[in-house]
Write a structure and sequence with these properties.
It contains 4 helices and 3 strands. The chain is of the alpha+beta class. A hairpin with a 2-residue loop joins strand 1 and strand 2. The two termini are about 30 Å apart.
Length: about 130
Amino acid sequence: MNLISLENICKSYGEKIILNNISLGINEGEKIGVIGINGTGKSTLLKITAGAENYDSGNIITSNNLTVNYLSQNTSFDENATVLEQVFRGDSPVMKVLREYENTLKSLEKNPNDEDRQKKLLVFNC
């Protein structure tokens, strides 16, 4: 099953063409690697694939419910955070909902009779 297809993706910065008619597909179960020397567009391709950067032309087709995230190679981490805490700091919509859910649970631990928080928790469970 095809998870994502990139068709004729083009990207340039001013006069410099970074990606010129790049096409590829990634199927379920496949593992891929992106190899090249510095400045050839590897990070740009990954950012475009994850939707973190715009492209000039082409098409990206994804399967239903596919989520693609991009972890920058220059990400700063909190030295005191666990790996799981670091993951929850992500900005994806799923991570935002998970953080809100966790915060609601913590709030209810402190005040189990808070009816507003109880109602909010019911929304998460629907």
